[in-house]
Amino acid sequence: MSADLLRINSLKKSFYRSPSLQTKVLSDVSFSMKEGEIVGLIGASGAGKSTIGRIISGLETADSGEILFVGNELTKMKAKVRRQLAKDIQMVFQDPYEALSSRMKIHEIVAEPLHILQIEKGNLEQRTQLVKEALRSVNLEPDYYMNRYPHELSGGERQRVGLARAFVCKPKLILADEPTSMLDTSLRLDLIRLMKKMNEQEGTSYLFITHDIALTRDFCDRLIVLKNGEIVETGETLDVIMNPVHPYTKTLIEALFILENHGG
Amino acid sequence: MRKTTKWIGLTGLVLFSAMLIFAIFGPMMIPYDAYKASGPPFQSPNLEHLLGTNDMGQDLLAELAVGARTSLFIGIASAILAVFIGGLIGVLAGYIGGRFETVVLRIIDIVLTLPFLPLMIVVAVYMGAGIFTLVFVITLVMWAGKARQIRAQTLSIKHTGPVLAAKTMGASHFYIFYKHIIPGVVPIFIPQFVTGVNAAILMESSLSFLGMGDPLTKSWGSILFYANSRSAFLTEAWMWWIIPPGVCIVIVVLAFSLMGYYLEERFNPRLGDYSVREKRKKQLVKTKEHHSSKGVLLSVESLTVAYPKSGDYRSVVDDISFAVKNGEVLGIVGESGSGKSTIATAIIQQLKRPAKESGEIYFEGNLVQHFDDEGLRQMRGKEIGYIAQAAMNALNPVIRIDKQLQEAIRAHYQLSAKVMDERVVEVLQKVGLDEKWRFAYPHELSGGMKQRVIIAMALINKPKLVIADEPTTGLDAIVQVEIVQLLRKLQKELGISMIYISHDLPSVLSVTDRLMIMKEGRKVDEGPSVELSKLSTNPYTRVLIDSIPTLYPKKETVEVSR
Fold first, then answer.
1. Are B254 and B395 contained in the same domain?
2. Which residues on A lie below 8 Å from B470 (Cβ)?
3. Are residues B387 and B494 in the same domain?
4. Which residues does the UniProt record annotate as the domain ABC transporter (chain A) (predicted)?
5. Do the bridges between strand B312-325 and strand B465-469 make them parallel or antiparallel, or are there none, so unpaired?
6. CATH code: domain of residue B477
7. Would you call A256 and B165 a contact, using CB atoms and an 8 Å cutoff?
8. Mind listing the domains of chain A with CATH numbers?
9. Which residues of B touch A91 (CB under 8 A)?
10. What is the pLDDT of residues A83-133, one digit of tens each?
11. What rounded mean pLDDT belongs to chain B?
């Protein structure tokens, strides 16, 4: 049996708007991912799916629960040690217009993880090679794009830069938080295909957070359906899509079915 | 940036430079020592003493030049100190947050309430009056305001994408600080400094004038102090004793205000776009009578909208023509940047400046470009309902839903409160919201419910045409379906015409009768929705349709259902 890449045990998280007003975002969420697996995390807005991504990436802390990454407990780690793990866990953000610094050129943006994690420190040539490789892997011609600024790029191009930035240090896991939702429909599949390609070539795993089930059909191995901070259904992607069990999943899929058939 | 802004900035710079040259070289050029008597007292201006002398026979021009050094020094030194200290504290408070920030903010609040006159008196007693006491007090009063503004800027940068991204890349605080926070904050230090100099020079003058500066050092304020206390106002002497330092203060303050204005626009380019819109003249409206007989509600004829880009005009909408008949639903589909929303804003004549518009738009046979302001106001909201993009996030958070809906009625009709309430209830029911929700505030509603309120608002005056710009964007799949079905139901029930703008083809196909596909401002394809989606051979249309992700594998053969 191959080892778990990521294992999450009874993760809990609440936000406090005031001491008395508590909103439960996650109540007891547990799941695991194998190496090389692509898992889709599905749910409506407010279901807590983004929070899970943010907790794994270290942007938020959980109230309780364990996150085991290749056997290492992330929540109990010292900040310094935790930061080193970023080499293996990278994140792609929802908004391509917001996530890239407008002051940095594309090659600086893509090289930022190398810089931060001190990969190939002092070896500028090697770093440039890695950046070029990452840009090529997302179908952006390095010579054309390296010295441009984000504002010169379209939304789709920017999101691919964001993806290249995640690829550049060859992480084991990429947390993709609605990476397609701000893109035009015609560009969504492109991005998915690029992500799938990296999965096939490098064995990169993805936790793909989305509310768009249709996108997961050809991309994800397994789906986790989240509602109000609880997992209501998990299973192989096609199983879930073809034979949803939980009423909530049924509604989600029905909604898409209606749209696909132009309102029936 | 506008040309006038540059001129304003340049004028400020010239004024300030002139004053700086006067302060640096003045005392060297003027043959008199400002601290020694060099002629008889109370002399009016003459060739020897260009500005005359004061009560002790000191040359006033020499005094003015030496005073310029003091005043400018105090102004600039306190501004640098205040911005530096305020900046440091503001950035740290914003970045660290938590209890530290709370404590700092409370301290800032206290400092901001300190009255600087009594403070000066108290401090001067302990430290002795002098230039450095003045700098100390002015800095003490000024840093807090700077800290607060710089903290706000830091806070906004702290939550931006690049900073979050760097965090997930494992960046240390130090890295985030010098790579992302500092470069984002430093640009606002400069305008802060400029306004700081301004305030400091004014404060110095008033403190010195009240005799709380250093009585032995010449500054513009202290010249005024002596002039006032030695009866300059009783004689003609005020003309050359009081006015020159006053003018100097005005020039410096003006110079820094002008430079500040320039820098403000420089670092906040959006400000430059604000300008007063010209009033639209009343004129005879060109009409096309035959439209109404043919059932054409809206007709757009070779509409082109261009925006200036690098010296030239670039078309975002390029020669677009289409018509919407009574009761028809037209879908406009295209990727972001294809000009869809620009068409919508052109129809209601609300293009953002500095757009250049050509072509003709007829609503009910009348050329809307000829409408005056009142005519347009009548058309918007009454004849044409507009569901703007992401409008559901623009509901006023502190006003109840019913009040916001009534506001839409009141823009066009004068009705009694009872009738208006009935209207509100009726329209809420129409969009599938229980009438109890009219007493709710926007934050109590979910995204889908807010969008229903927006639709209700567009329909409340029973318009003939509704323009819906991306009405399902930002909503979950389930809610999207509900909204699409609602729009279709309402359109059929009320028999209104609709323009449905979206990049989301599946939802468009389910609502519209006819489709227009746009790319880079041009129309690339047009036709009845169902046929277009299944039969169009236009390569771009095919790309759009084939890239729709589907739950179930596509069938190989496609039948046209009619």
1. no
2. none
3. yes
4. 6-253
5. unpaired
6. 3.40.50.300
7. no
8. 4-88+171-260 (3.40.50.300), 101-170 (no CATH)
9. 165, 168
10. 888 899 999 998 888 889 888 899 999 999 999 998 888 888 999 999 999
11. 85
Distance (Å) from the C-alpha of residue B511 to the closest C-alpha of chain A?
Answer: 8
State the nearest Cα–Cα gap between A238 and chain B, in angstroms.
Answer: 9
Number of domains in chain B: 2
What is the distance in angstroms between the Cα of A231 and the nearest Cα belonging to chain B? 18
Query: For position B558, what pLDDT does the model report?
Result: 42
CA distance, residue A100 to nearest chain B CA (Å): 5
Taking 90 as the threshold, does the pLDDT of residue B474 lie above it? no
Chain B contact for A252, CB < 8 A?
yes
Residue A51 CB contacts under 8 Å (≥ 6 apart), including other chains: A13, A25, A26, A60
B393 and B252 share one domain:
no
Q: Which two tokens stand for residue B451?
A: 């969008």
- Tell me if B335 and A112 make a contact (CB, 8 A cut-off): no
Interface of A with B in 154-213 (CB under 8 A): 154-155, 162, 165, 175, 184-190, 192, 211-213
pLDDT digits (tens, 9 = 90+) for B302-336: 999 998 877 788 888 999 999 999 999 999 988 87
State in Å, rounded, how far the first CA of chain A is from the last one: 45
Q: Domain for residue B267, yes or no?
A: yes
Q: Do A185 and B169 touch (CB under 8 A)?
A: no
Q: In whole angstroms, what is the distance from residue B248 CA to residue B224 CA?
A: 12
Sheet of B366-367, strands arranged across: B312-325, B296-309, B356-363, B366-367
B533 and B403 fall within a common domain? yes
Closest chain B residue by Cα to residue A217: B551
B432: containing domain = 329-341+377-546
B475: left (phi over 0), alpha (psi -120 to 50) or beta: beta
- Check pLDDT > 60 for residue A60: yes
Strand, helix or coil at B272? Answer: helix
Query: Distances in Å between the alpha carbon of B489 and those of A257, B325, B432, B500?
Result: 19, 18, 11, 14
Could you say which of B161, B478, B552 has the minimum Cβ distance to residue A95? B161
Assess whether B257 and B334 both reside in one domain.
no
Q: What is the pLDDT of residues B115-135, one digit of tens each?
A: 877 887 788 778 877 888 889
Whether residue B274 is predicted with pLDDT greater than 60 in this model: the reply is no
